[in-house]
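so i finally got all the pieces together for this one. its two components total, 914 residues if u count the protein bits. some of the lines might not be protein, just check the labels. i wanna see the whole assembly predicted at once instead of chain by chain like last time, that was a mess tbh
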Amino acid sequence: MSYLHWAIVAPLFLSIFIPIFYKVFRRIHTGWFVLPLPILLFVYFLSFLPVTMSGKTMMESMNWIPSLGINFTAKVDGLGLLFSLLITGIGALVVLYSIYYLAKDKEKLNQFYVYLLLFMGAMLGVVLSDNLIVLYAFWELTSFSSFLLIGYWYEREKSRYGAQKSMLITVFGGLAMLGGIILLYIMTGTFSVTEVISQANEIFNHALFVPALICILLGAFTKSAQFPFYIWLPDAMEAPTPVSSYLHSATMVKAGIYLVARFTPVFGEHSLWFWLVSGVGILTLIWGSIFAVKQTDLKAILAFSTVSQLGLIMSLLGVGAAALHYEFLDDNIFTVAVTAAVFHLINHATFKGSLFMAAGIVDHETGTRDIRKLGGLMHFMPITFTISIIGTFSMAGIPPFNGFLSKEMFFTAMVHVIEMDIFNLETLGILFPVFAWIASIFTFVYSMILVFRTFTGKYQPEKLDKKPHEAPIGMLISPVILVSLVIIFGFFPNLLSHSLISPAMASILPSLLGPGEEFMVHISFWHGFTIELFMTLGVVILGIILYKTHSKWKKIYQAIPDKLALNRFYDSLLEGVQLGSHKLTKSYMNGSIRSYLVYIFAFFIFILAATLIGKNAFKLDTSNVSAIGVYEVVLAIFVVVGSISILFVKSRMTSIILLGAVGYTVSLFYVLFRAPDLALTQLVIETISVALFLVCFYHLPKLRKFETRMRFRLTNALISVGVGAMVTLIALSAHSNKLFDSISKYYVENTYTEAAGKNMVNVILVDFRGFDTLFEITVLAIASLGIFGMIKLRLNRRKEG
Amino acid sequence: MEIIMAFVIGILFMTATYLMLSKSLLRIIVGTGLLSHGAHLLILTMGGLKRGDAPILGGDAVSYTDPLPQALILTAIVISFGVTAFFLVLAYRSYQELGTDNVEEMRGTEKDD
């Protein structure tokens, strides 16, 4: 194991010791023991910056299951490093925040930090694995730890509901992704991402290419809360706020983004990829932004906003993949979409993390997150207000914050879509900038609602449980650091362009780079009077108008969204599946032995008839039959009449006697067919059986008056005729298809010479095949012991008595 | 003869199945009795019928019937007897305890406790 492997699994290892720290050092908040690790890892990952900036990657491999090609290969390239820094950096800030957010003596801190560390390790594993199976394993671990974290307050109904929902949806996507991984393996013969990318051109026309593409995208869309799978994210807000801030805004929901970026070199050239990624992304963007305006809960607004921003990044990645079609251009303007995606990814992590933390502070200090109860908090919480206003302005895309820059680049990319001359974009392309623009207006509106409804307006102390006041300093450190980054990246965006964005782009679009080249990224604040600037102006003006008139038009929401609510669809789907399977099981598992026998017999008839017909196996060959004797025919008639009349007699006694008669006839058959031992045994046993029958049922007089004739049922009759016919048919064809002679010649010749006996049947029973007899004796012994036990052992009676 | 026997066996199977699909426990056991008769006769028939003398050395027979199916049937008879006896006593006991021999009325234990 290299240092890199240790870095990935370090959080998992530390999680083992957390309960010990929690038990031993009860007076120290457990979070302090966690905090050093993400900081250390952050510093460690920073040391990779020179490597990726020079265009190199770092690979470390460790054998896990080499015979299946599954090795724990860790790879650090631009993209992986960017995500690792986000995970560890924001992880450290979130741990610090949680130390002040979660009370030491009220919460189960040991569980919280174990889950959080599990998640951190899993997430590092996802972004740094080069092996797809290992990536999948870590992927599921993120779903799992997220499930645990959402259900952290498991005594609350809503937490459990949210946890279950996110689990079902993300695991569904994860499973689809596993399918995609296996399809890729079938096509390429390797689980290594690097090698899959190198074979991208060869598999492009493979029949499994499109199914693999769809499967992988399902995984990405469910994890990154894209339409229509976003519904788990708003319900995941039941988690503690540090969790929402970390998992559901900055890291886990970006795992899908990571996956799409990672697989862009493989699938990016396909038109389906473009349409799915950018189409679903832009739909999610507009859908999320419109629905965010409707919410009244701070975290719900932020959740829908996350959905919408993730859609934005996703659509940028889709448009960026189209750049692969313009490889011939020296100045490929379409790569700007990828630049914007990476840049916005960083920006979103900073401002959304700080906004969640601010919302957590408001919740913590006032006791509610409902914006209808909040208002006028500006004077009580000036620092939180400052944090919020910077975060929301960045989210709305207002200068001078970093959100403005990425929004400008987003518009640039969307405007470039019109210039593309592929995939019918000459005509449909106009939708992209229009959708993007409308979504930005709504983004502006909900951003304004978020900050101004909370902090300005009328202060309503009667609706609040607590007297609001500023948060403790420790709680403010993390969001202050994040908003400082918002400002720093806003003013000096090129700090990032060479160090992080360019290497990440090199990982997303490797084929566009010649050897030794790198993407020249330059993010400028002022780019002249371009169309993007006017779009932003329009967003601000229309946004302000809509915000001012919000109270007048918000009623429209009451009419539309309920019908479009996907939650209702999800709930009824879940309920319907449960109800349906319950009904289905009820319908055939009805508890009646007769029905089960009908299934069994019907299946028997069906499968045998199908085989007989399908294989053309029925054959009737009369050359091998023995002569028909008069006695045998008489006996046969006897058996037939006897057994059929059992069906029609009324009395049980008669049917028992008829069964005995059939048994005795069978023993006469044995006589005629020259089987003296059989005849003897059959005679004796039939006598005992009949006696037993009589003993059992003669002494139960009270039941005799209920005796009736069997009622005729057509299904029963059909089934039994079918069974009889099948047995006859198979007996006939088996008899007509003798392939080999019997082995009995050996017994006939050696009974006397080898075993010193003259009765062949007896010699076979005790000498040649004595084992059968041994266990047959055992069967009898067990049966008699069982009967004895049944009669003697009466535990129920004793209890009652 | 084998063809006639095949039909006889088929009829035994048919009646056995019909009885096993009935509600009365006794009829089900009668059905299993018929089913085992059918199966035994089937083994014998498939071995070939009347191909010589009874399989006991000592006479002056040239050929014997196949002894192997007879040994198999003998084992099967004993086993099915053991199982039938057990089943019968089980039915007898369930009569005593439950007061019914209608299998449709024997459903689960939910109501009992």
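The beta strands of chain A are 58-65, 70-76.
The mean pLDDT of chain A is 87.
anyway lmk what u think
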